[in-house]
Amino acid sequence: MSRIGYRRLVAVALVAGIGLTGAACSDNKKDDTGNKAATSAGSDAGTPLDPKTKVTISVDCEPPTTKAAERKQWLDDVAEFNKQYPNVTVKSKDAFPCEDPAKFTAMLQAGSETDSFYTYMTDLQQVLDAGQAADISAYVNDKTVPNLNDIDPGVLNVLKDGGKLYGLPTSNYQMGLIYNRKIFQEAGLDPNTPPTTWDQVRQDAKTIQDKLGSKGINGYMDNSAGNQGGWHLVSEMYGVGSKAVDDSGQKAAFNNDQTKGVLQTLHDMRWTDKSMPATPGLQWGDVQKAMGTGKIGMYVGAPDDVPLVVQQYKAKFEDIGMAPIPGGKTALFGGADYMFKKSATPDQIKAGIAWINFKFLTLEKGQFNYPRNKADGLPVGLPQPFFFTGASKAKDTETKTASATVPVDNFKTYVDAQVPVLPEPPNAQKIYTVLDTVMSGVLTNQNADVSKLLSTAETQVNSLLAASQ
Amino acid sequence: MAATTVPENTTSHAGRPPRAAGGAVRTGRGRKVRHNLQAHGFLIGAVLCFLTFSWYPMVREFIMSFQEKRRGVTSWVGFRNIDRVYHDPYFWTAWKNTAEFTLYALVIGFVVPFAVAIILNELRHAQAYLRILVYLPVMLPPVAGVLLFKYFYNPDYGLFNHVLKTLHLPTSQWLDSSHTAMISVVVAATWMSMGSATLIYLAALQNIPGELYEAADLDGAGLWSKIWHVTIPQTRLVLSMMLLLQIVATMQEFTNVYLLTGGNGPENSTMTVVYMVYQYAFSYNNFGSAAALGLFLLLVLGAFSGVYARLSRNAD
Description:
The complex is a heterodimer of chains A (469) and B (316).
Chain A: H1 5-25, E1 55-62, H2 68-84, E2 88-94, H3 101-110, E3 116-120, H4 124-129, H5 153-158, E4 160-161, E5 164-165, E6 167-174, E7 176-180, H6 181-186, H7 198-212, E8 218-220, H8 228-239, H9 257-271, H10 286-292, E9 296-301, H11 305-311, E10 320-324, E11 331-340, H12 346-360, H13 370-375, H14 390-402, H15 412-416, E12 421-423, H16 428-444, H17 450-467
Parallel strand pairs in A: 1-2, 8-9, 11-12
Antiparallel strand pairs in A: 3-11, 4-5, 6-11, 7-9, 7-10
Helix pairs in contact in A: 7-9, 8-16, 10-11, 16-17
Chain B: H1 2-12, H2 20-35, H3 37-64, E1 67-70, E2 73-76, H4 80-86, H5 91-122, H6 127-139, H7 142-153, H8 159-166, H9 181-206, H10 210-218, H11 223-234, H12 236-250, H13 255-261, H14 273-283, H15 287-315
Antiparallel strand pairs in B: 1-2
Helix pairs in contact in B: 1-2, 3-15, 4-15, 5-9, 5-12, 6-9, 7-9, 7-13, 9-13, 12-15, 14-15
């Protein structure tokens, strides 16, 4: 022991230290992912997976056990997929919500995401910057994804960068106004003519507040934290014709009269009419809970909130309706997709695409198996996803209508309005974070200076966008 | 042991006779090291832990603050990250909020535990019982404590407003107003952590010789006079070290603001520097800028830690 030496010990420690520091100092101007596999797709990339090749893929976003029906369907679908592809082992990882942004960022940095991983459509730049997305352009064609030509090109464009495709859509939504028809009726409003402008929203919210405020019911509610305030504000500014960023995607474009008008209305509803609750700092889940428990008349949201407020908070489908986004100029559309890990092998990417195609992009299978959804007590008839066009859209509408369990008429105003859609802005989550502050300012400070809040947010967004160029 | 030392030194400098003085020093040091080899061996685990989880991340952070990652490619960007965070419109807001939190935390979180310790020290009965009561909130998981205060602070149905309404006093928005959010966070944070500080102060107070108070009594000193002339001077070292530790800890405030106000708070009134670091990393996905902002904080905390290290040395 005594001869080993302290010196040897110190030498080992020094070497380790220098090694670590060296590792930290290295990496200049080279791909950090350490990828070998899918950096270049082979010439056979466009061919479907060879059934003789044994492949194991990990996939996230398996429904958790608390969502029993969805989980059962997932497991059944894996079993059915395996009949077609017995050579593929699907290792599912459950989580709800499917993406926690902070955890997702950390996973991307560590490269520990699954081989096929769920992302929001707003995540593309982040995943690309982390060097984690495989270019699947060569893998995706009408053989590997038979309905490819019927997928709305506008939706696919959101998943492209520099002409290269990085993801496959699994769901999409268009923002609108969710309202409680029962509350409208109780307040003496016509539930079949929901508000379509911000002036009408304010007026109806005040009516609800005046008539039902004593029962603890508020006219309107909005988010202001957790990026949800920013997301809602962008949806609301889209509705009145403003954009979040200019066409170059490099400058903020929200500091204008339209956005100020929306914010002023929200401010007046909160402080003058008091038709919004006194609890600001609300985020995802809060407004849904309030709607589901019959505590608010209206909020801005997407159709997929409806099953949540019904299943989790026991509202009735017939009590919930949707109108187009107030203003009706453009509606924000967003959604989710799956991307494929850059370090996955070509066979893993092929297997991942085959699974996503089976589960999310094949009519009458997976998520589009409406008779099964109906039998399992899941809602059928919501106006989303809507990424199919042409014959696929017609077929989807037909099968959906045949099994509909939600009152489709409650969404008629929303669907009939045909509001043109606009994708979320580039670097959306960064912009939403900044705009949370604007919403929070308007809803927590009676003397809020809307112009100043927007100017400060504009400066910060410009700085963040410049940093992303 | 000594027998093996001399030849080893001699052979390591073959052809050159060792200088008497230097050789003696080396021999002495070598012996000292060998005597303590076992202790050094035990240290390896701790050193490796610090190396992996503290020192390496610090080196990495320093390097990252001059780098940027795009499309999976890391490149050097000089001082661009530092410039970016310095010109962030909320840079000074975050520092102001951090200073405000630290100041409130010192006024409330430093004075209150010390006062409670003095009261506990003076008690003749139920001291152990009360000590447990004071320490109890520390044993509560932070998230549970935060949830409790979130309920207390709720403007609609919270306990505090309920009490105020009962007393016909004006209610407050607590965490939901930019004027009261920060102080509300500090009160909750102090409640959750004051137990540990109180026990440390109490231990220091119990080390003060009783004769000093008796002498003060004989000199006719009153309560405040005894605190000022006996208690505080006798606990000066503990107080100053706790003060510095508290400054270093409170300037890194993240958990309470994140859990109580979502981080930013109304109109960014609770956005601290560490929350801003988190935001750059996990909301903006800009780890270089997050590291650069961390460097600013490192410099400020380094100064306070230096003072602490000096005080500790004096205490030894």
